[in-house]
Amino acid sequence: MMVYLGLGSNLGDRFASLSRAVDSLRGEPGFKHLAVSPVYETMPADMPGQPSFLNAAVFFETCLDPYGVLTVCGEIEISLGRVRTVIGGPRTIDIDIELYGDRVIKSETLIIPHPRLHLRDFVLQPLIDLQPDLIHPALNTPLTKILCELETRYIIERHPLTL
Q1: CA pair distance 90, 93, nearest whole angstrom
Q2: Residue 163 belongs to a domain
Q3: Cβ distance 54 to 8 under 8 Å?
Q4: Which residue segment(s) compose the domain that 87 sits in?
């Protein structure tokens, strides 16, 4: 199954946190053919006034089910110092499952596609960079169309470094 993750960091050495997250994902035995988007500098979406973020996306093939991917992402976040104190607050690393193939999942512990995917240019643009023809499976709409119609923009600039 093709899986797309969103990565973000706005505490400490943001680029190093993203790099370590990507390295950890590349080291996972159940993840194959990992590709990484460009990195974007972005304004915070949920809590204004906190430091700006660096965001990127990755995609890979896996035989893990969505809950297995969620477990791996949580373990990587913890290993990189993620502490959940305030919802939407600053974080060393955030790893979200944005898409899991074309599946739509709504459970108490997991919602796929990510429930705010269609509202955030800092998630849409890196996903489009990886796969321009992606379709939002719940909305049945191309991500490129969703991005073009967004009114709120958070991306400040494309970051010069690559992961």
Answers
A1: 9
A2: no
A3: yes
A4: 2-158
Measured between alpha carbons, how far is 127 from 108 in angstroms, rounded to an integer? Answer: 25
Regarding pTM above 0.85, the answer is yes
Element holding 8 (H helix, E strand): strand 2-9
Residue 103: CATH number of its domain:
3.30.70.560
Q: Do the beta carbons of residue 23 and residue 79 sit within 8 Å?
A: no
Write the pLDDT tens digit of every residue in 66-99.
Answer: 999 999 999 999 999 877 777 777 889 999 999 9
The DSSP call for residue 104 is -
Q: Structural domain tally of the chain?
A: 1
Q: Are the C-beta atoms of residues 155 and 41 closer than 8 Å to each other? A: yes
State the catalytic residues.
82, 91, 94, 96
In single-letter form, the type of residue at position 33 comes to: H
Residue 130 lies in a domain: yes
**CA–CA distance, 162 with 74 (Å, rounded to integer):** 23
Tell me the Cα Rg of the chain: 15
